[in-house]
Amino acid sequence: MNYLFFVVKNAIEDFKKNKTQTFLTSLGIMIGVFAVVMLMALGLGLKKYINDQFAQLGKNTLFIVPGKIIQGGSFNVAATLQSVKFDNRDLARIRKLRGVEEVAPIYSAQTQVKSSKGSEEGTIIFSNEAFFEINGFKIKIGRFFDQNEVIKRSKVVVLGSKIAEKLFGKPDLAVNQRLSVSRISYTVIGVIEPEGGGGFGGPDYDNYLFAPYTTGYIFNPQKDFSRIALQFDDEKFTLQEIKDSIIREMLKRHNDDSFSLIEPGEILRAVNSIFSILNFVLVAIASISLVVGGIGIMNIMFVTVTEKTREIGIRRAIGARKKDILFQFIVESTLLSLFGGSIGLGLAFLLTLLVQRFIPAYIDIYSVLLALGVSSFVGIIFGVFPAKKAADLSPIEAIRYQ
Question: Is the full-model pTM beyond 0.70?
Answer without folding.
Answer: no
